[in-house]
Amino acid sequence: MADEGKNTKSCSSPPPGKEDMPSLPREQEGADEKPAEGAQADHSGVQESKTSLPKESPTTAEQEEEVEQVESDAESIDAEGDSEEQDNSEVPSEAQKRPEKVEKKISETFFYNYEDIYSRPFVTEDSGIPINLLTLKHSFGYDCTRSVNLLLMDSQTLMYIAGNQVVLLDLKTKSQSHLRSSSGGGIGFITAHPTKQYFAVGEKGKKPNLIIYNYPSLRPYRILRDGTEEAYVFGDFNDAGTLLASIGSSPDYMLTIWDWKQEKIMLRSKAFSQDVYKVTFSAGNEEQLTTSGAGHIRFWKMALTFTGLKLQGALGRFGKTAVTDIIGYVELPDGKVISGTEWGNLLLWEGGLVKVELCRSGHKPCHSGPVSQLVLDEGEVVTVGKDGFIRVWNVETIDAADSVDDTGLLEVEPMNELHVGRNVSLSFMSKVHDCGQPIWYAQDTNGAIWKLDLTFSNMTHDPECMYTFHSGRIEAMSVSPITYLMATTALDRSVRIYDFISNSQLSEIKFKQGGTALTWAPRVVNPKGGLIAVGFEDGVVRIIEVYDPKGLPVLAGQTNTENAKINLKQAFKPHASAVTALAYERNGDVFATGSKDKTVFFFAVEDEYEPIGFICVPGPVQALQWSPPSHVKSTLLILCENGFALQVPAPRPEEQDTVSTYQIKNLPTQYFHFYSIKSQIKLEEEIALREKKRQEKKKAKLEWIKQQQEMGKEIEEPPEEESEEEPLPPLYIPEEPSPILCGFYSAPGKFWLSLGGYDSGFLYHCEFSSNDHQDDPENRRDEPFEVIPIEDTDNNPIHQISFCTSRLLMFCGMQNGALRVYPLQDKDLSVNTLKEYWSFNVHDNDYGQIQGICSSYDDRFLITCGGDGNIFTFNILSPEDVHKELKAKIPSPRSGLEKEKATEDIEDPSAYNIEEVKQKKEYERIMKEAEEKKNKKREELIALRHEFLFLLQKNQELPKHMQLPREQYEMDHRIFEELNRQTAQRIQLVQKELAWEHEKHLIGLQKLQNQFRDSLEFDTVVVHAIQSNHQISTYRLLAMSEKYYQDKEHPSWTKMALKQAWKQAENQGEIIRETRRSTVFEGEAEKLRTTEVRKPTVHYIERKCERIRRIVEKSDKEKAKIMKRKAEWDELYKSKPSDDYENPKDVEAIREAQENMGCYELKTATNYRVPEHKRMNTEKKVMQLTSLEVLIHKRKVNMNKEIMSLRDLKVSIIDKIKCLVQELKSIQAALDLSEHLPLPLIPQLYPDEVPEKKFEYDSDTLLKFKEEQEAKAKLQEQLEGSPSSHAFRHGFLRAPSIKEIDPMAQAAGTCPMKIASSVVTEQRKVFEIEKAEPTEMELEILKREKIKNLYLQETLIKKINALVVNFDAELRFLRHKKLKLDVQMKTAELRYITWYEELLILKNLEKHENLLQGHVNNLISEQEAMQSKLNRYLAQMEDRKCEIVKLQECEKALYANFRASLGENNEFSHFLTKVLKKKIKCMEKKEVGREADEEDEEENDEESSLGIDERNSGSEDEVFDDSICPKNCNEALFQNTIQLRQKRLDIEKSLTEEKKVAANLRKKYNALAEKAKVVETSLDTAKSELETFQWEKQQKLNELYVVVPLKLHQVEYLVNGEMPSDFSQALVFTNQSLEYLQKRIVDLHNEKLMQREIYKKAQEQHKQLVQDKKEMEIQIQRLEEKCNHLLMKKFGRLVDFEAVQAHSVNICMEELEVQIMEKEYIHSQELKEWEKRILDLQQQLMKLTKENTSKLQQLNRFCLEKHQFETKLASLKNDLGVEFQGTRSTAIKEKARLESQLKHMAHDTALLREEINLLSRKDGCLRELALLSRKDGCLFPQPSSPQDSERPTESFPVLTPETAGYEFHTGKYSFGTRVLKNE
User: Fold this and answer.
1) CA 601/CA 1046 separation, integer angstroms
2) 1544: closest CA among 1514, 1584, 1576?
3) Mean pLDDT to the nearest integer, 30-50
4) Sign of the torsion formed by the C-alpha atoms of 490, 496, 501 and 504
């Protein structure tokens, strides 16, 4: 295609072809008001050259057919994009407005010229750069991430978008043709016409075009303009192909319906307020459309209304379904719509609502991921998923689908499915027929185009991958240094090799991680040019080699058909994160890699790359560049993202020590930390601009003055007005440093930088300083020494810079995807060289920033790759310059390559990098050495221990007297103490080490207790009887939640907060009261102080204020009395009952009777209506359940407490029995064995009686448990391997542990042993006693003791038995009580179950009930709102009526005034009446009379006769001049008539307007009344529906079974005296209710008689009250007449007596008088103070004058003395003798001293003169004298007070000899004069 122009285009030059084109007629040019955007004026879109679009010259016949196009925009855009119903009316067309004008149309045969509309490169004006500097050769990439980027025009042509081009790919020849965008702003979508004769291209940019091309001619057919603001995102033709719908992107999201053949907008509307992805016409109804996008789907229809054609959009409601982005949808034949979701299910839409959600069986989603497209094909629904599956569904099954449960899901299975492949993510399919067979082409977002066969038959072909591309952004690209090959990599984990001569992809290799950097090894590294280094996102660098497999030896049975093959040569991992830069040193000896982990790694380039070491840098590495060969030293320029640049020399492998680490620490490094200067540059530009404007202004002024002077005019220069300039903008430094995008060397130590962010727009020339090592890099602030502004790059920075081999051209890749070329004359950069450039928008303008740009090795071709996934190749200069056939040469393979083993790759992304491997090896080496040292020390210790044991044995063998004691073996006891201390420390250390484990187990135990024990309020405790088998157990209860008791036991936080707030308020009130008291006290004290000095005036003012206050108080009291009386009357009238008044108590009693008395209706009856107070909802039922649960819990808790008390009683009884048995044993010890009664057994506590003891343990228990566990472990070790070990181990584990032994049983076992031993000892003692014969007394005593002991023995046994029997009785009684409680609990639990079932039913019906109740509430609120509006309208209507009556009264008064002004028998009355009634420009409308309602008719009947005469006179045909007063007519009367006429017209106008307003109000009132009736009807319907629902709910509740346990005597429903088998007709009723009903019959009869008596009495009382009322009215009337008579008698007329009572003096006037008096008093006081002050100042002035006079006299004396001294001195000079002719040093000194003294005196005299001048001023102004200083430090004191001024001055003024006489004489006379004046 013609992508190049013939002439250079510039910003200021006219559009191409405009000058040479003949002027076309208006009809031919179409709508020139909207010219298309011509070739782009600037690549960035800042400046655009807009041209009209010339068309191909049509024939004469065609010119006659072509007419001017008239576009009509229906731009009624609803701002609420997401409203449910939206009307967008079309603006009536010009044809509708002006039917006489014929609408002219565009000819069907009309075409635009492609050469005139496509965007061309931008070239700087007068630069001489050819416009065809670069021409597009081929596009390798594919923007597969676009949602729809695949279009098939026929079976051989595939179309897709590539940046600013539409690529047409011939599937047979693989050739490409390109269509450029017209704006250069990018392309938004492409879509095909149903006939495939046309296709539409929606562009991007400012006001983009939508161009319709003809196919296959590719001629522009129509250009649609002004459809959106920024970009088109989707478009679709209707089935007939007559209409086109388009969707715009943000900010307008405009949906536009086009009559595209006429380039006319039919309808437009805002589609939504968020992203819209798709729009389609309905297949069955072309007046319906559907749009979908982010979180919405919308259904549109074109409706013809009385205002024109409108677009109405109904927003789809998701309901229960989660809101989802809808990418794909399809409309079914019956109008339903099926759409996809983000989670893979399908939604069936009907009527704007989700009817059902479809899934597969088992609730599996239809697709495992978003559904990207739905197609209706041959009666089947085909869904395309991101999971790589294509599934076919039955349309009839989907169409008839409906939800079967509350989930809203319906399981449907697909008819067929196709899995395209692994790692396939399909986004779009397009169908085409090839030889009658349907073929589908699918777009894979993972970078492929597939050819699919969806026939699903035995002959179906497998999916075929037609093309593969990079998926997403291309990260890096490089070109071969010796041939026409290029390599690319991206995050799709692939590396691809392209031949850009044959325009083909040669080979591809996949890895586990995505590629991030790539460079082709230079020729010095690999002369064959087949070596490539690739960096990946996991930090791995792989060296791959490209070779021609045909050069390998062919094995038997194999053939090499591939053009190129890629082999992994080496893989190493130098970094921990993504590799961002790779660079080979200029000599090829060193290879450098940079990464985001802020490191740069160096490798020695050999056959195998060997690591040299790495350095750390201040930020993530952005780029690496080695110095060019022109530099003396080989250095590496490192650019970091965060604004740092570094320069390091190439490290030498032999100088690096890599034993322990690869980090290079001594490598000389130079730093440059970029400091932003853009703000400073802008500031300097602003200053220069202002200075320039100032100079221009000055120059213009001078020229004007010169012109005026030449014209001979006198010029008075006005004073220059300094205009306030705006302050200069402050310097701005971005907080985050701007990122460095790219850079390159310019000279040794110097480099250029391009930055993004704030600092974009310039190229910065920087230089490394020599003292880099002295500064911290982070604290550096380095500024560039040269700056070059780059045009239009403030928001579009340069991302990539590359040079051709000769460095005559600089290629720049921009952020907006544009390509720039700068010609460099002197191979260096300067301001002048960068002013001229060539620019071309190539990649996508939004996301297609150029990632790589480089030229071929011979500078014939240029290749770019971008973020949009596209790769473009360009011919540098015209392709005609290339004469010979070029061909890419693939490198031959290395020798022996076929025999090499496959290189081991690094596939694990978490593998160690090189440094980590080194550190790990070093750590293992150190640990190994340490372990060897430990083993050596252990061997030495073992040898010493053996030697010590041998010595001990030798010592034992010696005789005892020769053996050494053990203490002597201890060399030092402190050693053992130290060992003990160390042992203690180790124990402590072990405790610290185990602290975490200890705490962990404690927390685990605590969690178990919290989960299983603490949640229990009561555990199961079984209390056993002692002598029987009876037992009773507690209820196992969980602790109730605190929320059940919160309201009952604890005060709410609101109450506590209120209490605290109340206390705080009280405290503040006390503080305020105290403050007020103190203020009052202070005020009173101040008053007491001031009253002492007050004068009679103040007392008079106070008396006046007091009198006013008393008058005001009296008036206020009268007013308060009147108000109180009014309030009492109002209260009395309020308490007066109305005629239909009903006593609230009676109403309440009636309501209660209606609800609770009368017939008991069964809830199952059909006419049963649930009363309002008995209606049950979920909240009430939950409260019922909660209260029942709390009640059950309380009853069980009480019973548990009783059982626990019984258990405690048993424990106390056991303790008592033990004591009694012990006592019994002591007694039996004194008795004979034959007399012993059997000892009662001591009852024991069972384990289930004390379950809490299972959790008690001590250290002994733990130690036993440990021993037990150790024994188990030993036994397990011994029995390992034996066959019977399992059985033995099982038996061992089943043996009871020590913990399982009952402590009571242990006590019971040990107790008999102790008793037996004590009995034996007692018997021995008895035997010993029996050996001696007792006496008679002793025998008697023994006999008595025996009787006593026998009695005590019997008594104790009875006591023990009584304790046991009583306990058992208590237990049986409590057991009986618990059984009753069990029955009650079971009943309560049955009721709980019933209520819970009711709760479930209520929950299911809650939503519907809430909807109905909400509907009722809404209607009630709406009814109340309408009623309030009706009342407001009525009030407004009443106001209007009053206004109309007032105006009519005014009109009547006006006519009456006119008659009165005329007088009687006025000869001009008829004329003046006509003047008055004349209508002048009547402004009211005639319709007002018709709009007036019935009420106006009554008002019209009351009009005066003058009004009737006015209408009659208006019809007269007489013509008279009312502007001139007739002769003999009173001029004042005539003017008065004119004024009255004007007033009449104003009144009539106001009356007409009021009637119109009243009519409008009546209309509104009637309309609202109708609405209110409708609302009332709807409310009644809603209430009836709610009643019906309540009845249905009650019927559902009635269906529940309720268990009612009855006894036989409670059954009174008998049939023939027997109990029936069927109780379905029986009624469960309480006896109390039955008795109450029977008693109620008698009560009602008695109550009826009583009410009759009450009614009779009330009737009589009513009659009496009526009679009393009449008498009171007569009395009131009599009293009113009496009051009126008294008022007339006193005042002479009726007055408002209350107003007279409340009348008082004029308070405001009195207060103002008091204020005036106070002000006068204050002013008099101030005048007195000022007079006193003036007197003081006059006295002070007198004192100063006297002081001045004394000083002048003193000065006069000084002058006389001075004169005497001078005379004496002169005489001494004349009498000099010989004695003075010798040494004169003393005289010289004396003379010097006197001269200096004279100078000081002269200075002092001058000061005194100044003082005298100040004091002798006539105005009497006094100034204080400051301290005067002299050179010798002498000070004159300041006369600040009279006392200071009276002190004599000690210093005397001395005059100089030169001025002595003059000063003396002038001073004398002047001083004398001044003294006289002052005196």
Assistant:
1) 68
2) 1514
3) 36
4) negative
Query: Quick one: which of 651, 601, 652, 656 has its CA closest to 624?
Result: 601
Query: Is the entire prediction scored with pTM above 0.70?
Result: no
Residue 1119 vs residue 870, higher pLDDT: 870
809: nearest Cα among 780, 845, 770, 837: 837
- The identity of residue 808, as a single letter, is L
Tokens of 745: 């060397």
pLDDT tens track for 1780-1790: 455 566 778 88
Q: Which residue has the tokens 């009250």?
A: 1665
Confidence of residue 1832 (pLDDT cuts 50, 70, 90): very low
Determine the 3-state secondary structure of 986 from DSSP.
helix
In the block, residue with structure tokens 């929320």: 1043
pLDDT of residue 968 exceeding 50: yes
Lowest mean pLDDT among 81-90, 152-161, 927-936, 1130-1139: 81-90
Confidence band, pLDDT 50/70/90 cuts, at residue 774: low
- Indicate the pairing of strand 346-350 with strand 353-359: antiparallel
Contact predicate 850/819, CB 8 Å: yes
Interatomic CA distance for residues 797 and 799, integer angstroms: 6
1037-1038 and 1016-1018 as β-strands: parallel, antiparallel, unpaired? Answer: antiparallel
Write the single-letter amino acid at 1403.
Answer: K
Structure-token pair, residue 1570: 């109708």
Summary mean pLDDT of the chain = 80
Structure confidence at residue 896 as a pLDDT band (50, 70, 90): confident
Q: In what order do the strands lie in the sheet with 871-876?
A: 134-139, 871-876, 861-866, 850-855
| Cβ(1360)–Cβ(1221) below 8 Å | yes
Q: Where are the alpha helices (DSSP H) in 1050-1172?
A: 1053-1091, 1096-1135, 1144-1156
Is 1833 a residue whose pLDDT tops 70? no
Bridge partners of 168, per DSSP, are 159, 177
Distances (CA, A) of 441 to 450, 454, 464, 467, 1056: 6, 11, 10, 11, 74
CB–CB of 156/166 below 8 Å?
no
Instruction: Flag whether pLDDT at 72 surpasses 60.
Output: no
C-beta separation of 69 from 106 below 8 A: yes
> Do 163 and 848 meet the contact criterion of CB atoms below 8 Å apart?
yes
State in Å, rounded, how far the first CA of the chain is from the last one. 117
Give me the sheet containing 264-270, strands edge to edge: 232-237, 244-248, 254-259, 264-270
* Ramachandran sector of residue 69 (left: φ over 0; alpha: ψ -120 to 50; beta: rest): beta
Please count the other Cβ atoms lying within 10 Å of the Cβ belonging to residue 1784: 11
- 1041, 1206 contact by CB (below 8 A): no
For 86, the token pair is 């939206």
- The angle, 0 to 180 degrees and rounded to 10, between the axes of the packed helices 1042-1049 and 1178-1228 is 90
Could you give the CA distance from residue 1611 to residue 1497 in angstroms, rounded to a whole number?
Answer: 80
Q: What are phi and psi of 1375, to 5 degrees?
A: -65, -40
What's the pLDDT tens digit per position in 1169-1218? 787 778 888 888 899 899 999 999 999 999 999 999 999 999 999 999 99
Give yes or no for residue 222 having a pLDDT over 90.
Answer: yes
Task: Dig out the tokens for 64 from the structure.
Answer: 């006659």
CA proximity to 1748, closest of 1877, 1555, 1645, 1570: 1877
State the Cα angle at 1350 between 1346 and 1353, rounded to 5°. Answer: 135
**Burial of 633 per CB tally in 10 Å (0-12, 13-18, 19+):** exposed
Residue 1504 has pLDDT above 80, yes or no: no
Amino acid at 1474: K
DSSP string, 223-269: EE-SS-SSBEEEEEE-TTSS-EEEEE-TTT-EEEEEEGGGTEEEEEE
Map residue 1163 onto helix, strand or coil: coil
| pLDDT, greater one: 1122 or 885 | 1122
